[in-house]
């Protein structure tokens, strides 16, 4: 049977681009023994599939996400996963409205269910909210790196990296004690079993918080952070920042660690605005202000108070701003500060931004300034400290000279802290949270103060072992040393190190240079190589995977959106993720308004090349590898000649960029050394070259008017196709290949 | 060829005991296919051998230490190494005097050589000073544990472990930054080569400090401690101790880390006695007071000042003592404080003493009190903190219930910090110390302030790999889990972890429970098992080897002198060390005065049993193992019936204790299941039993008068033998066996 490459149908800009790109892909890969198949996991598609019981037969569609969820567990999986919408409730509601207007008899979204029926509807819709696709598909660990042409391009066209001020006062501030780093305990389950998480107060009253199933050899860990120590730390850091006269910034990941991190964020509010709570504690409680939602929550609810109280509060806020250090701004024009909303400053993106900006941020008046980079918990803070200090000492990174840092990340099966949000608890009073195994043995036990943040997380044995294998293989393939960023001071990491010791020697380690180092030491080692222009593989846990695969790509090529992101599936297949930059709603806005799509499909090109190489291993013809290699060379030219889409109407857009990709690809195949392929693509290359002006003109002519595609979440696909393939000349050449 | 067990002839009490014990050993092992051979490595013997060119032919002896130095590199080595004198200069001078008086034409020791000839003499004598035996013989790593009967005895006859005060204020204080722990860098040499250690000042002037030969794959590391941070830390700790109103104590190891640690000790003097230096800095310099030698150095030199200055200084000292926290005392009767001499408080012995004493020390008035246990560098301080906090939380250890902690220590070839004293430097001004390889590449580089303590240390690849093997084998033999106490935050340990990953899987790890944890976590894990009565193996570097093999034996059986200490030699042989308690000069004093020797040969018994087991592997008859097992059972009875030597004349002494050992050993062999051995030893057992009273009486009768043996360092051996074998009845029974 021919191997099948699944191309996912998703949302917004990359969805639109698919209608232009996919025909080209089909054309170029035909006769090379591979199927290309489109599978719908768009928000609208998932709504329709999930709500099928409300829909008449003719409107129902298959649950393609469920299908892919099964496929990833089979060796034949080969999936190109484009970025889909992680829907917020407002997005869900809008999509439902749109589908209803198109004749889908869907129930409204019941925000506050009033009966069992509505409860059930809300539960069904809940399946379409948030990050519900990745956990289903990511049945493997993560292999992320910059493809050769992307790295080459950045070396030749370096992005701007601002030089830090001499004697920069910017620095990372972190806690010294009683944080997650210090309090971790870890347990390896000797069997499949159900663990109990229990709270016991000082009088011995117990409360079962949760039961958690674990597998044999699963590493189950837990830790806590003491809130009082955290707030003392904030107070000290705020004072120190004021003294240094720089900006105060706070970096957490409330989007992902969605239970613990908003509370850590909220404590910063409680400390920075302390006088507010001292003076107006009662009032703030009355109006339901929740500091964990940021100061925007106060702004939204302030009008529930009488005018004079409002005035008094605004006055106190002014005093606070005068007394405290200036805040790092998300948007200084609009007055949106770091403490405005918990989700605005996300550590993995925000610290690289500070680094790129010469260790500076924007202050309240739009001024660019040094800042205190506050990362409370030491677990990962110290590796950021290491790179910040390195830059202060050795200067800004030069994209034309630095090496590359690739990542092999432990991600499979909701690994580690990123799987912790349903196991995060706040003890209601002083007491203990412990984890009990089936024998009633306390395998983890912490003594806590009321309100402390306790969280548990785990990683499955199969995921860890696969991760070690992946690291070893990547090191062998690349010839780069691999560094396991593991800290033997952490109970959890000590258990991982044990697995590394067991697994790594299975993979020809005589021919691999490898190291096990704690994150800050690993950073130091890696940066030393990085500055010498050498490549290094970071083998990390799930959090550092997330952090480092933004950090290094942003330093190396200015963005993490151009990273090649592969999930080598545990069962042997491959998942190729594209578009770390999201699904770009602003691009769609512009497209609808003036029929110009500035989405860059580079990620899709790169993923496709990797996917085709896997297809070869899965049984496609030898030719597919030649086609993939030609594609990579085409991409190099695409970048080098700067044929990426431009921002303004009338300039080259996504469709024009696809034309160039096709042209380069055909030209590369016309000289690829395989006589059959050369014979097939030589005339194509010739036609494309001869018609270059004409095709571009046909595309350009279509632009400048609104594009009515009959919907945002669920457009009319005939219309989409019409708009996305405006050049008859180009279409004819491509369709002749399909 | 019959395997040979070498019994070392050494000094003082164990030397004397040998004359009683060795005939018994010869008798009991005869006909079991093993030679017992005595080799002289006593101080006197080493002097005679070293100075042979000054001696007439007939007085010369072979250099037996050199012989053993070669033997340890061969697989047939099987050596029982009794404790010898690590001679100080006064001891050397006394030994020379004694030999001269016996007719040895030796030159005097030239403390301050006046010409080349004297220089040469001093250099020759230098070979006899200090710890010169162990480095020659310890061609292997270390395997230390409590033998079964010793552990059993302690469980049945527990020593006193004082209960800590409720809410004990005792605690470990350590630095937070800029210590050795933080600043470490490490390098693995890719080949045999010579490294250069270079100091470069800020103007670029360079000075070669030392050249060091390293082997391929040797791990070479260096770190430094910032003196200003150290002194700030001392000031803070002293203040905090005063506030808590407890004793201030400082624990370093100036005897072993003989260059770096006296300076760390000296800085404590500089801070504690700050006012003294402020007021009398000039005077103290004039008289040559060196704080690194402790306050005793001031006392010794104070009379070089005029009377009134002396008085003023004494007055200031009084004021300082009134103002500062009370000091932990070495001897409160004599007024000797912790800060009196750098070698009085030695961390590996002193902290276990505090623990044993309920986390308390003695204060100036002889009062028992809580104390601040100051251990500046974090590298090992935090593991002490862990056990101290554990005791505060979970109570004092109960010797009848606790498990055992065995050690496999990386020791071979002057491993790690214990090989650092000739590579320790203090930069004369602000600048850099770096290590340069043969390509001129800086492989390690530190920026330092003038006076900082920089030290380098290394470990040979063969030593590390052997250590991992030893750990795996010990774990398999014992069934205990093995914990590698390695901190991935330390560059040096990160390199060791790499080796563990490479080596450990060669040794059947599916059947071994093993862990890699940073020291404080390893301590936590180990103590949890320890309190449950379980056994654990600590696989550690050289410093922790030294620390833990005092700490746990002292907790478990009240002393580290009863530890079984084996050096499995790299070449395959075995070195069995006895007498961690030293060579006991006080015992000799008593013996000379009243012919009562209270030395306990338990260490020799235990070492002999292990050595005989090795002899079996080396080709001795099967019977030797039966004899060894019988010896172990005899030792159990020896302990259980408390037949160890007593302190007072007229009570059982070393010779009487040997009688009981022989009696039990014979009785065990009389019922050992081997008919030949039973036939041989049944009559012996009978005779010994029947003559018990008579033999003990003969020994007792000899006591109470001085024993003139014709020398201290080099006695007349016929006389020694006469005194040490006073019972004709016993001698007859034993000699019949030989």
UniProtKB/TrEMBL annotation, chains A, B:
<dbReference type="Pfam" id="PF03971">
    <property type="entry name" value="IDH"/>
</dbReference>
<comment type="similarity">
    <text>Belongs to the monomeric-type IDH family.</text>
</comment>
<keyword id="KW-0329">Glyoxylate bypass</keyword>
<dbReference type="GO" id="GO:0004450">
    <property type="term" value="F:isocitrate dehydrogenase (NADP+) activity"/>
</dbReference>
<keyword id="KW-0460">Magnesium</keyword>
<protein>
    <recommendedName>
        <fullName>Isocitrate dehydrogenase [NADP]</fullName>
        <ecNumber>1.1.1.42</ecNumber>
    </recommendedName>
</protein>
<keyword id="KW-0560">Oxidoreductase</keyword>
<keyword id="KW-0479">Metal-binding</keyword>
<dbReference type="InterPro" id="IPR004436">
    <property type="entry name" value="Isocitrate_DH_NADP_mono"/>
</dbReference>
<keyword id="KW-0816">Tricarboxylic acid cycle</keyword>
<keyword id="KW-0521">NADP</keyword>
């Amino acid at each position: 049977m021919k191997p099948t490459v699944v191309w996912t149908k998703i949302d917004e800009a990359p969805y639109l681009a698919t209608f232009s790109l996919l025909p080209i892909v089909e054309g170029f890969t035909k006769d090379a023994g591979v199927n290309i198949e489109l599978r719908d996991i768009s928000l609208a598609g998932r709504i329709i599939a999930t709500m099928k019981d409300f829909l008449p037969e003719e409107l129902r569609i298959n649950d393609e996400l469920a299908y892919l969820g099964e496929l990833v567990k089979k060796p034949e999986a080969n999936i190109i996963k484009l970025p889909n919408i992680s829907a917020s409730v407002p997005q869900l509601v809008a999509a439902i409205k749109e589908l209803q207007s198109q004749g889908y008899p869907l129930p409204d979204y019941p925000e506050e269910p009033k009966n069992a029926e509505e409860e059930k509807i809300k539960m069904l819709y809940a399946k379409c909210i948030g990050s519900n696709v990745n956990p289903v598909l990511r049945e493997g660990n993560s292999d992320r790196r910059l493809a050769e042409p992307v790295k080459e391009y950045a070396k030749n066209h370096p992005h701007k990296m601002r030089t830090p001020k001499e004697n920069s006062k910017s620095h990372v501030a972190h806690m010294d004690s009683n944080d997650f780093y210090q309090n971790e305990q870890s347990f390896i389950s000797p069997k499949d079993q159900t663990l109990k998480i229990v709270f016991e107060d000082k009088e011995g009253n117990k409360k079962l918080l949760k039961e958690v199933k674990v597998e044999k050899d699963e590493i189950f860990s837990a830790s806590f952070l003491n809130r009082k120590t955290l707030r003392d730390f904030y107070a000290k850091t705020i004072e120190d920042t004021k003294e240094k006269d720089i900006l105060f910034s706070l970096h957490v990941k409330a989007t992902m660690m969605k239970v613990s991190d908003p509370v850590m964020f909220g404590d910063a509010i409680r400390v920075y605005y302390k006088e507010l709570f001292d003076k107006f504690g009662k009032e703030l409680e009355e109006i339901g202000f929740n500091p964990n939602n940021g100061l925007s929550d106060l702004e939204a609810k302030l009008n529930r108070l009488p005018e004079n109280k409002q005035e008094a509060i605004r006055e106190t806020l002014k005093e606070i701003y005068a007394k405290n250090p200036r805040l790092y701004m998300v948007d200084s024009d609009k007055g949106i500060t770091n403490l405005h909303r918990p989700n605005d400053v996300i550590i993995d993106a925000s610290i690289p931004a500070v680094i790129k900006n010469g260790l500076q941020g924007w202050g309240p008046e739009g001024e660019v300034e040094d800042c205190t980079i506050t990362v409370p918990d030491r677990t990962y803070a110290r590796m950021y400290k290491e790179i910040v200090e390195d830059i202060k000492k050795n200067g800004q990174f030069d994209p034309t000279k630095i090496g590359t840092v690739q990542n092999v990340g432990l991600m499979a099966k909701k690994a580690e802290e990123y799987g912790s949000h349903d196991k995060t608890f706040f003890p209601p009073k002083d007491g203990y949270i412990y984890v009990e195994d089936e024998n009633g043995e306390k395998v983890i036990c912490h003594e806590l103060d009321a309100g402390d943040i306790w969280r548990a997380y785990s990683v499955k044995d199969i995921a860890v072992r696969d991760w070690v294998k992946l690291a070893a293989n990547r090191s062998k393939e690349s010839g780069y040393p691999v560094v396991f960023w593991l800290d033997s001071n952490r109970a959890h990491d000590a258990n991982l190190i044990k697995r590394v010791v067991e697994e790594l020697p299975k993979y020809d380690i005589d021919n691999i240079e490898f190291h096990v180092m704690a994150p800050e030491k690993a950073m130091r080692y890696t940066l030393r190589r990085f500055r010498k222009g050498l490549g290094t593989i970071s083998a990390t846990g799930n959090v550092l995977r997330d952090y480092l695969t933004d950090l290094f790509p942003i330093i190396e090529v200015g963005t993490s959106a151009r990273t090649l992101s592969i999930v080598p599936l545990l069962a042997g297949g491959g998942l190729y993720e594209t578009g770390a930059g999201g699904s770009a709603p602003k691009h769609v806005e512009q497209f609808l308004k003036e029929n110009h799509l500035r989405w860059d499909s580079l990620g899709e090109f790169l993923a496709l090349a990797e996917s085709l190489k896997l297809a070869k291993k899965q049984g496609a013809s030898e030719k597919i590898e030649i086609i993939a290699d030609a594609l990579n060379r085409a991409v190099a030219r695409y970048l080098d000649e700067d044929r990426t889409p431009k921002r303004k109407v009338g300039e080259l857009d996504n469709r024009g960029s696809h034309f160039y990709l096709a042209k380069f690809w055909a030209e590369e195949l016309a000289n690829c050394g395989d006589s059959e392929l050369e014979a097939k693509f030589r005339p194509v290359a010739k036609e494309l070259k001869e018609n270059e002006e004409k095709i571009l003109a046909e595309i350009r002519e279509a632009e400048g008017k609104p594009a009515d595609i009959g919907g945002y979440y669920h457009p009319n696909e005939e219309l989409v196709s019409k708009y996305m393939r405006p050049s008859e000349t180009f279409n004819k050449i491509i369709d002749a290949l399909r």
